[in-house]
Amino acid sequence: MCDSTNFAYLPDTPDETLVYEYINTIVDKNPGSALKAFFSYFYEGTVLLDEENRHLSKNYRDALKRIISNPKSLSNFPFILNRSIHILWNRWSHQLPKRKALFHLTNRFRHLPETPSRNEFIITLRSEMRAFVSKPQYKALQRRIRLWDDIGAHEYNNTLGDRIKHYHFLYRPTMLTNDLLPEDRENVLAQHRREVYKFEKFLHAFLKHYSTSDGEPVVNTTNLCNSVLAESIQHFAPKRPGGYKNESDDFRAQQDSLKTMGDFKQEFFSYLIKAASIIDGHESLPNNHWAKRLRECIDSVKCDHMGYNQAMITLICKRVLDFLIADSLQQSDSGTFQELTEKEGYLKAIGLLIKISLFRKAITPWLENRFGILYELYETEEVPEIEWLVQAFEHLNVALALNAEDVGYYYTQSSV
Question: Which pTM does this prediction carry?
Answer without folding.
Answer: 0.90
